[in-house]
Write a structure and sequence with these properties.
With 170 residues, the protein is of the alpha+beta class. The chain has five helices and five strands.
Length: 170
């Protein structure tokens, strides 16, 4: 679930491998073919965030897309009881739009930004148009697109709510 929340906050589409590192343990989607790498990846679906937090974990490493290698550090500042009338997860704020999926890591992202900042006429114009066509819409690195994030988190909240048991019929 935490992976889905990070994906929603970043505006990514969950196309790639990912993993969390917490207190030296790696959680993700285990692949039997990865045994040759000499490291164990435990199933992320088999561990609950509450259990990790109760064990004292406050920092989580998160890597998404092992090719582009987007590294994150998630720091738990505090925990508190959920409010019964609130919907979770909840967007509290943020800054700037994330790099586009499959842009080529940090070097590719900076190249993308330079390209779309280029002139609208002349030699750079074709490259700019191609980059924006590849992205699929205008891109503003300063616009976090709060509406998109809130919509994605609302979708997660709806699927995460426990289903009410059906009433037994007489």
């Amino acid at each position: 679930m935490l992976h889905k929340i990070v994906q929603a906050a970043m505006g990514w589409l969950d196309y790639h491998l990912w993993e969390f590192t917490v207190d030296g343990m790696i959680y993700g989607r285990p692949d039997p073919d990865d045994a040759s790498w000499g490291r164990e990846v435990k199933s992320a679906s088999a561990i609950r965030l509450a259990k990790l937090l109760n064990s004292g974990a406050t920092t989580f490493g998160y890597v998404y897309d092992m090719g582009d290698n987007w590294e994150h550090r998630i720091l738990v500042e505090r925990t508190e009881a959920a409010q019964p009338d609130e919907s979770y997860p909840e967007f509290l704020g943020g800054e700037r739009r994330c790099p586009p999926e499959d842009c080529g890591g940090m070097p590719g992202y900076y190249d993308f930004l330079d390209t779309i900042a280029g002139p609208d006429r002349g030699k750079g114009s074709k490259r700019k148009k191609e980059a924006l066509d590849w992205y699929g819409c205008p891109y503003d690195a300063d616009d976090i697109d709060e509406t998109q994030i809130k919509t994605a988190l609302t979708r997660i909240a709806r699927t995460a709510k426990p289903k009410k048991p059906k009433s037994a019929s007489p």
